Amino acid sequence: MFKLPPAWSKKFSLGISLKLFLAFWLVILTSVLISYLVTMQFRHSPIQEQANPQQLKLLKQYTQKLADKDQVRLKKVQENFRRKYHQYLLIKKISNNKVYTPRKRGWSEVRDYLTKHPLENPVTVDFAFTKVTSSEPIIINGEQFQLFIANEVHRKRLVSLVNQLPVALRLLMLLTISFLSCWLLAKSFTNPLIAIQKASESIGEGKLATRITKFDQRSDEFGTLARSFNKMAEQLENNITAHQRLLGDVSHELRSPLTRLQLAVALAEKNMGNDVEQQKHLNRCETEVERLDEMIADVLTLSRLEHNQNVFAADDIDLSTLVAQVVNDCQYFATSRNVTIDLKTQANCALLADSKLLSSAISNVVNNAVKYSPNDQVVTVELRQINEQIILSVSDQGPGVPNEMIEKLFTPFFRVADGRERSSGGTGLGLAIAQQAILFHQGDIVAQNQESSGLKVIITLPTLLKQNKSNT
Questions:
Q1: Are the C-beta atoms of 132 and 110 separated by less than 8 Å?
Q2: Residue 372: which region, alpha, beta or left (left: phi > 0; alpha: psi -120 to 50)?
Q3: What percent of the chain has pLDDT above 90?
C-alpha cells in the first residue's frame, strides 16, 4: 500500500479550523438543500378568494372605458394605469391565452396561472407576492380580452425580492453567507484551542509566566477552559518557584551544620590524646548530626504536606483534650526556660481531624512561642468554639515581629534578624509545617503583633471536614 512521506503527510493534513469549517459548511448546505426541497413541497399555492370590492370597482370603470373601442394601444394603457394608480394592469388575450404582465422576474408564476385557469367570474387570486383581481371579458380592438389588477403585497416584499433574483445569484448568496458564517464559527471554536496549545508549548519551554489573556473573559466553556488553564499555570509556577526556593534554602541551611560538623571532626582528630577535648568535640559532632536529622525530617514532612501524600487519617477527636496533651508535653521545654504555659480551654470541641498531624502543628506553634518568650513570662493558649468554627490562639510576651515581616513568618527557613535570630535554635520550618497542616484541615492560621508586646498566632478550624474524610 502506497504511503505519503511524513513531510508530505504533514503538508497535506487538514488543521482543526479547516476540518470544522468544512464540516459546518457541509451540514449547513445539506440542511438548506433539504429545507428547500421540503419547502417546495409545501410552497404557497395561489388561492382564489372573493374579489376585492375596490379593485372590482376600478376594473368596471376601465372595462366600460375600453369596451368596443378600436385602435387601443394595450401597452400604453398599462403604462398609464401603472403611473396613475401605482398598480399593475394585466391583460389576457382570450383567443390565444396570452397574458401581458410586467417583464420582471417572479411574474412568470402569475402569467402561467392566468394562462391555464380561465377566470370567468370576478375573483381575487392570492399569490406569494401579489394579489390579482379579475374582470369579466370585454371586446377591445375587435377581440376578446380580460383585465386584471395586480396589487403587490408589501409584507412579502423581501421574499418576492429574493424570488425575483436569478437562480445563479441566489445560489451565490447562499454560498457566500454560509461560507462566512461557518468560517467565523470555526474560528471562534479553534482560536481558543490554538491559544491554549501555544501557551502549553510555551510553558513546556520553561516560560512559566505564560497566561491566556484573550479568551479567559468568555462566558462559555472555552472561557472556563482558559481560566482553568491559567489557574493550573499559576499553581505550577508557584509550586516550581517554591521548590526552587526550598532547594536553595535547604542547601544554605545544611551548609552551616555540615561545616561545624567537619570542624568538630577535625578538632577531635587533632586532640586524639586529650580525652576531655576529644569528648567535647565528639559531643559537638553528635549535636550537629541531630540538627541535620531534625532538619531533614522537617523538610520531608513539609514536602509530604505540600503534596498531600497519604498524610491524612481523619478521626473524630476532642480538640480540648488534644491541646491539653500538647501543652503538657511542651511544658517540659518551657520549664527549662522558666516559662509557664497558661491553658484556657472550652470542653467538648469535637472535630474531624488527623490527631497526629494536628498535634504536631499545635506543638510547633506553642514551642515557637516558648522559644521566643523571655524568662519568667507566660505563654497563653486559649481554645474556644464559635458556631461551627474552633479558634485556638497562642500568645507570647516576646519582642514580636516587624509588621512588614509577619506574612513571611510561615515561609520555610524564614527568621527575623533581631529577637528571633538563629541562636534561638530550630530549623526554621516549624511554622511552615504548622501552616500546611492547618490548611490541610481546611483551616486558617495567621500571626499578629499584640498591642502590649509579643506575638499572637490564631488557628481557625472548621468542625466538619467531610471532604477530607472521603480521602482517607
A1: yes
A2: alpha
A3: 4
The cell numbers describing 267, all together, are 578538632
Look at residue 471 in the predicted model and tell me its pLDDT.
43
pLDDT band at 11 (very low <50, low <70, confident <90, very high): very low
pLDDT digits (tens, 9 = 90+) for 370-382: 888 888 889 999 9
Kindly state the average pLDDT of the residues 359-368: 86
Residues 447, 395: contact at Cβ < 8 Å? no
Amino acid in position 390 = I
b/e code 253-286 from CB counts within 10 Å (16+ = b): beeebeeebeebeebbeeeeeeeeebeebeebbe
Cα separation of the two ends of the chain? 55
Q: What is the model's pTM?
A: 0.46
